[in-house]
From TrEMBL:
The keyword S-adenosyl-L-methionine belongs to this UniProt entry's keyword annotation: no
UniProt domain FAD-binding FR-type: residue ranges: 2-105
Cofactors that this protein relies on: FAD
Family recorded in the similarity comment: Belongs to the ferredoxin--NADP reductase type 1 family.
UniProt-listed Gene3D superfamilies: Nucleotide-binding domain of ferredoxin-NADP reductase (FNR) module (3.40.50.80), Translation factors (2.40.30.10)
Pfam families given in the database record: FAD_binding_6, NAD_binding_1
UniProt-recorded name of the protein: ferredoxin--NADP(+) reductase
């Protein structure tokens, strides 16, 4: 248990029957880069039950925030979804992950492409002032099945638009593109199809994918990651990592359970 900090749950919000977010205290010694994840979980029968979760909060915020799916028979999430204010969670002492700007070659437009709870690391990154310094435009695309599943992302972006410091930055630089696949909505379709057809770029009034200017981060379902990885690789985009920056990076650490 020495590998984990005990933190106190500060708030819990259930967005749908399958999605919730929560905040917790943050140990002063816990450091992370925006976009990284840590192992978090609960003590069950005297032993830690842990899974990888991206911080949805930024590294300059005092509290930690996480965005989670509910899996009714999941070993951890079946328990985690029942937490309440005042409960204790475990947080790993070390953060890691590939979705950091240092793993990308400098560019002008940053595409943050997510599905489901894969939005979490990007909720952290769009609160990072350095991202707005380094890129002319940031496009946050979030794909879900139903409109209700977009609520958390809309809440985060709306909060930043109203923020005294981030509001002016976002007005000029951040483009938020939510899309759904199973209900009528202003944006319809899978992110993979919307990029392949150029529809996403047409919808936001910008030029299509360009290896000279575009840098990309991916986090979401395995199918989405596999398709986009193949698409970008076929167009000459090289994947980056800690040892060699590239044109796009992928977070492969998560399994929804």
């Amino acid at each position: 248990m020495s590998a984990f900090q005990k933190e106190t749950v500060l708030s819990v919000r259930h967005w749908t029957d399958s999605l919730f977010s929560f905040t917790a205290t943050r140990d002063p010694g816990f450091r992370f880069q925006n976009g990284q994840f840590a192992m978090i979980g609960l003590e069950v029968e005297g032993r830690p039950l842990m899974r990888a979760y991206s911080m949805a909060s930024a590294n300059h915020e005092e509290a930690l925030e996480f965005f989670s799916i509910k899996v009714q028979d999941g070993p951890l999430t079946s328990r985690l979804q029942k937490i309440r204010e005042g409960d204790i969670i475990l947080v790993g002492r070390k953060a890691t992950g590939t979705l950091i700007t240092g793993n990308l070659i400098p560019g002008r437009r940053l595409l943050l492409l997510s599905t489901g709870t894969g939005l979490a690391p990007f909720a952290s990154l769009i609160k990072d002032p350095d991202v707005y310094e380094n890129y002319e435009t940031i496009v946050l695309a979030h794909g879900c099945r139903q409109v209700s599943e977009l609520a958390y992302g809309e809440h985060v972006v709306d909060g930043l638009r109203k923020h005294e410091f981030f509001g002016p930055l976002i007005r000029d630089k951040l483009v938020y593109y939510p899309t759904v696949t199973r209900e009528p909505f202003r944006n319809r379709g899978r992110i993979t199809d919307l990029i392949a057809s150029n529809q996403l770029f047409d919808d936001i009034g910008q030029s299509g994918l360009d290896i000279e200017t575009d840098r990309i981060m991916l986090c979401g379902s395995p199918a989405m990651l596999e398709e986009l990885h193949a698409m970008f690789s076929a167009r000459g985009f090289v994947e980056g990592n800690h040892s060699q920056p590239g044109y796009f990076v992928v977070e492969k650490a998560f399994v929804e359970r």
